[in-house]
YlbF family regulator
Amino acid sequence: MNVYDQAHGLAKAIRESEEFKQYDQLKKVVDQNEELASMIKDFQAKQFEVQAKQMMGDDSASGMMQSVQDLYQIIMKDPMAAQYMQAEMRFSLMMNDVYKILGEVMGIGNMQ
């Protein structure tokens, strides 16, 4: 069993998964709408910043959390944005499961 062949097989399976296909299709639609794409990108950057601050124990993260939640509520009012965010979440969950499986095999344990 060649590890590289298996890795290419996994990549192909991911590309052919419904989670990836839906995410990719909706991403292309969102990317055509500059305003919507910019709003989602801004939300994701702020969400990442809050998560990073939380991981570092920064107390300012709790104050930022409310503004991120407010922005999320605004974004989710747009049906296309809501579909995209849901598809992205499903794809991310699938990839997280794949990472967990690989981590368990390598003895790394629960990778989150």
